[in-house]
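User: I want to check something. If I give you two sequences, will you return the structure for each one separately, not as a complex?

Assistant: Yes, each is folded on its own. Here is the first sequence with its structure:
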Amino acid sequence: MVQVAIVDDEALVRAALRSILGSADDIQVVAECDGHRAVAAVARTCPDVVLLDAVMPPPDDGLTVLRALRALPRPPVVAMLTAFDTSAHIRAAMAAGAGGFLLKDTAVGTLIDAVRVLAGGGTVFTPTVGRAVVDGFLGEPAEEAAPDPSAAGSEAAMGRLTGREREVLRLLAVGLPNALIAAELNISVGTVKDHVRAVLRKLDAPNRVAAAVVAHQAGLAAAPERP
């Protein structure tokens, strides 16, 4: 059962998301609140995934709450939800450790699948956001400084990866969760997790998104071939 917390400053939005996610047999909403109560609620319920409104009023705005959630002893995977797909929002959220970025008009089935992917260790982006993520990391820095992809993706750093780690990075970069990477490479999920940790360490990448950008730079982000 995937446990989810919903953080949004609008009660109607929270209710709608709870109803949508509640329609899935394998998803349970364990908390829903505004930004002010988010950290306490998440620390208490320890959800696998948090759906976080990117645009909430200060001082508990989306980016502030995201940073606080990622600093918890057991940080959840956090996907940002917003009605806007501006590059500034995306770059700042990715730099702060967001595991995905979804527009609020995402289709019901897509949202449910996205939660499953996030819980499985994958990253999720709506189509318009996916391109902006890569462009944001490779382009001009936002007001909130993004990780330096040129440093993380240097030739020396890529050279430190083993062949298997490069395979894991390639599949990670196209958004596959750990379970699907394991199936693709015929290895265990635990082994995938070990490889992902090694990849992040060797690339000096703060999260899977930054590592995916490095893979795009290196030309590794090709979808796995199918027979």
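And separately, the second sequence with its own structure:
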Amino acid sequence: MTDTTAGKAPGAERTRRLATVPLDTERLAADLEVMDRLPYASSYSDFAFASLRNTMLWNATGVLGEALLGDYPGGARPTEHGRLLPYVNELITGLFRTEHLKFARLLVLPPGCVMVPHRDYLELDQDMIRIHVPLRTSERCFSSQGDTVFHMRAGEMWFLDATRTHTAASFWDIDRIHLTCDFIAGSLDEVLTAPAAHRPGVPAGNIAPRRPLRPAERDALLGLAGLIDLDNYRDVMAVLTKRHFEALIQADEVFGWMKDIAAASGRPEVLDRVARDEEYYLVRR
């Protein structure tokens, strides 16, 4: 399946690094200590092959448990957890025009966590703008969109075109933590307090090298048809998604591989599951 986009981010923007934010390492370290003690929700567990965790820092009401994306009058307000992180709060108010902010969250990928290739905002009528600011990460943490795998490094600010197929993975030994903010506005310029770089695409220095898929790997992956069933279905998808970060398999091709494996397995219930998942993650929900 090709990387179809039902809607476009405002201004037809594409994923790119917007700026480098000079982080105060001492103040960030103090906030990170608090983050490591916070209780997190697992609201998006169906989007990951391990326990993806998140907590709301700003939302419509300031009530911690409110986590559904959507529009509402006015800007967001800090939650209980947001108020516990004074430096992160200063980053939010210093980098962004908060009258357009709808949600600010911490998104935590624990060691070994890989996200299902997916597109966001499919359930919404309006366009949203998503910005990531990595707070703790490493070269063992990856993001991807389409056929590009790349690093979002600590202190960089990124626009992510979440309407296109994307995924992420952490093969690090501690939690990867990103600040993610969602806005409703006509353009990135309306969201940011300072002008951002307008160079299109992912910078070459952030792109992670990958190798061609070896013939033996291809045969081995297709050979999972002899094992796949509904009980281990997500395990097989996780193997394919992880391989995307190592070899030249495009993110949304994971579903094509799953269909080939399911068809070869002779299990119609597995093939039906792949079709439903592809619809849910990439087309509509």
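Because they were folded independently, the notes below concern the second chain alone. Residues 1-12 have pLDDT under 50 and may be disordered. Helices lie at 25-35, 80-83, 86-95, 188-191, 215-222, 233-244, 253-265, 268-283.
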